[in-house]
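Researcher: Sequence recovery benchmark, item below. Answer with residues only.
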């Protein structure tokens, strides 16, 4: 079957790898290289825009559970991510450039054709996966409006990246929270006076955009740090600047701590974890210099905020990710309302699995709702009321049956074990 994938991001590349490996003729249409977006920095496929972290890997995390599910279902990109991982404690973080290179090499190895052009509509021949991402072009957005009805949007933010050599290492230290695992994060402590000065500067700094997103159209997981600061004096200290478990080398507990995570394998760049921002570039440098370790930091990339678009999936889509009005068109990635890198990959994988099954005359494969994949599918197609993007979390899973497990981590592991067992049974039954 001929499959055209519109968009060479994470969802599109995951889908392309799966389908090409199973003998389908796959073409990726990617406009970057011809026409850029406000947020991407390169024309590379599978470019990671907001962060280089694919989140946690442990079985007591929803993100770790989702990764295990994708590995069982035949995903490709997570394997490539492991091959270019950088130290990040209990998370899977990658060297962005190396990751994109590995994805492009894999696609070429599988015989996927990449065409650099702006797609304005679905293909007439074969099947189309529209996975052009949340910063979809105006032309494709208009086409989606015709096929899917009204569009929704929210705002997303990106954290800055600084040069490693510009960090004042005398005012920072490596440590893992509670001393667990490798000391992969560089910690920048603040005392109470420094923290309050930082918060005041965030509250009064000039923003790049002053309208829609401040009305609440912002994804909670990508809240700009200045918006979080406005929620209360201690909001940042219970969020990205929480100091618990991060004692300084002399055994003292800081009032607040900003963590920096390696951006690449070379270790010459760090991103500011949880410091997504909508401040003007000059204001970012001025305000963040109040953090002692970053007083003279050199910014390799400033944080930005951008508009994300997603379709009204419950009205427009089936559980197999195809459109209700056109079974030859599938929507994947953040465009369908999943939020997060791995979630986007998972949506592309699910669309690809069902396209492959359709080509063989088989029924769709919809994972059990006890899995993260299945619960996300259910959210996309059965959500009611004010439909909003959803990421992997245990709250979307049905409750455990039996007595309540008091230990929080053990309870999360129980969700993971149940979900993976149910997925294995369902996949085996349908010979996946």
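Model:
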């Amino acid at each position: 079957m001929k499959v055209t994938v519109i968009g060479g991001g994470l969802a599109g590349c995951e889908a392309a790898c799966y389908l090409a490996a199973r003998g389908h003729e796959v073409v990726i249409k990617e406009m970057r290289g011809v026409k850029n977006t406000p947020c991407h920095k390169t024309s590379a496929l599978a470019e990671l825009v907001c962060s280089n972290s694919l989140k946690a890997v442990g079985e007591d995390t929803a993100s770790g559970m989702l990764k295990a599910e994708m590995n069982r279902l035949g995903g490709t990109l997570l394997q490539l991510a492991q091959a270019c991982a950088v130290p990040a404690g209990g998370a899977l973080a990658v060297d962005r450039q190396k990751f994109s290179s590995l994805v492009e090499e894999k696609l070429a190895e599988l015989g996927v054709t990449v065409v650099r052009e702006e797609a304005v509509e679905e293909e007439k021949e074969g099947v189309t996966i529209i996975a052009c991402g949340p910063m979809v072009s105006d032309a494709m957005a208009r086409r989606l409006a015709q096929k899917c009805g009204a569009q929704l949007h929210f705002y997303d933010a990106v954290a800055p990246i600084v040069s490693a050599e510009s960090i004042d290492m005398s005012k920072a230290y490596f440590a893992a929270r509670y001393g667990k695992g490798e000391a992969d994060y560089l910690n920048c402590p603040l005392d109470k006076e420094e923290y309050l000065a930082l918060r005041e500067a965030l509250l009064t700094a000039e923003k790049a955009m002053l309208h829609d997103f401040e009305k609440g159209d912002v994804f909670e997981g990508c809240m700009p740090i200045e918006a979080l600061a406005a929620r209360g004096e201690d909001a940042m200290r219970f969020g990205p600047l929480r100091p618990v478990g991060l004692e300084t080398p002399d055994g003292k507990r800081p009032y607040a701590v900003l963590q920096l995570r390696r951006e690449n394998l070379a270790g010459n760049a760090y991103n500011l974890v949880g410091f997504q921002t909508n401040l003007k570039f000059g204001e970012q440098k001025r305000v963040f210099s109040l953090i002692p370790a970053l007083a003279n930091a050199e910014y390799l990339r400033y944080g930005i905020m951008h508009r994300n678009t997603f379709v009204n999936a419950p009205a427009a889509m089936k559980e197999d990710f195809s459109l209700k009005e056109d079974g030859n068109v599938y929507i994947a990635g953040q465009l369908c309302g999943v939020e997060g890198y791995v979630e986007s990959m998972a949506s592309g994988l699910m669309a690809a699995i069902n396209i492959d099954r359709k080509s063989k005359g088989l029924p769709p494969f919809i994972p059990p709702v006890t899995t993260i994949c299945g619960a996300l599918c259910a959210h996309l197609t059965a959500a009611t009321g004010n439909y909003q993007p959803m990421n992997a979390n245990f709250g979307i899973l049905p409750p455990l049956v039996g007595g309540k497990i008091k230990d929080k981590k053990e309870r999360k592991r129980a969700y993971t074990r149940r979900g993976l067992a149910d997925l294995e049974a369902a996949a085996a039954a349908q010979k996946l």
